[in-house]
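Feature request disguised as a bug: please show the residue count (268) next to SCP2 sterol-binding domain-containing protein in the output. Example input:
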Amino acid sequence: MTFKSNAVLEGIKSSIENAPAAEKQAQIKKVNAVFQFNIKSAGGDETTWVLDLKNKGSMTHGGPAAGVKPDIVINVGDDTFVDLASGKTTGQKAFMGGKIKVKGNMMLATKLDGILKTAPKPAAAPAKAASSAPAAASGSSLKIAGVASSDVFTQIHAGITSMSATERQGVVSKAKAVYQFNIKAADKIHTFTLDLKNGNGDVYQGAYKNGKPEIAITIADKDFVDLAGGKLNGQKAFMSGKLKIQGNMMLATKLDTILKSIQKKPKL
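Example output, currently without the count:
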């Protein structure tokens, strides 16, 4: 049985494993608890994950390690957990609505929303010295011969530049993140940056110029075109291994919506 929540939990696991030691220790000190998630699918299948932010800092699939006792056990439906992780609902609302059941230290449940939003991020390459905000790219500068994804980014550029300043600010205030896409085409990696965090938003060819992006996505050229065109779902792409993520996994849950909202009549 495939669980929708596995994509989120694998992302948190990756973030914790790749987090700098100091950041991981700070998270352990702040939370100081072991969470056990018993997740049930719509069909009645169950799976268990354990988030240990008390001892060594880890996320494991299955029951707790020997000698480790969870401080709180949360029973939750698969869809509800995904909604919690994406911010569509809160732990309090889910609990009050009977969608999650808690056993153990009830007060720890109040930390759940924060944990899902602030899971440790993996270390990035040393940041380059900050530079002034990049000039808006022209649509033609995004074109790369033989790379179909470049047409998508050209459409995204057209969509962004056709918006009013107020509309662009609305998109930026909603997304609040920089997405870096590493597109694999003909044995080469072509990088594009979608900046929906600074100024009025921008898209350009190359890596993010002002530090590190909140999320970096590696995906094959054709798969990205299918993703942007709605033929491929982001969650399914991740779970099937077609999409690799480094950084804040939660931002990936917004990707389908963002690509649909800012493209200008894509013709793929």
